Amino acid sequence: MIYSWRGANIKNILNFEKDYPEAGVILLEENYRSTQTILTAANRAIAKNKNRREKNLFTKNDNGEQIGVFNAYGRSGRSGLYCRQIERAHQAGYFS
Fold first, then answer.
1. Which of these, 32, 27, 85, lies nearest to 59 by C-alpha position?
2. What distance in Å separates the CA atoms of residue 60 and residue 39, rounded to the nearest whole number?
């Protein structure tokens, strides 16, 4: 429960149609920024959540690159990793 620390209650979403039968529900499933590879991974991750509203994230964008896994320990390890990735992208001409 991402926002439970702020006092949010997931039952407000899960029981919405029952509590407000006259209201319509519009699922916001299309993503305009991510690649389908990212959204497929997100769909697989959120599918494991038993207390969720059924949905399928999708995009009209390309599949994009495969997802990579990087090991970085601590804040300085992550920041160094990001800097190296930015430097490689710059050298490859992504920021011209």
1. 32
2. 11
pLDDT digits (tens, 9 = 90+) for 38-81: 999 999 999 998 888 889 999 999 999 999 888 888 888 889 88
DSSP 23: S
For tokens 């011209």, name the residue.
96
Q: List beta partners, residue 58.
A: 30
Return phi, psi of residue 84, to 5°.
-65, -40
Tokens describing residue 44: 């697989």
Residue 79: burial class (beta carbons within 10 Å; 0-12, 13-18, 19+) = exposed
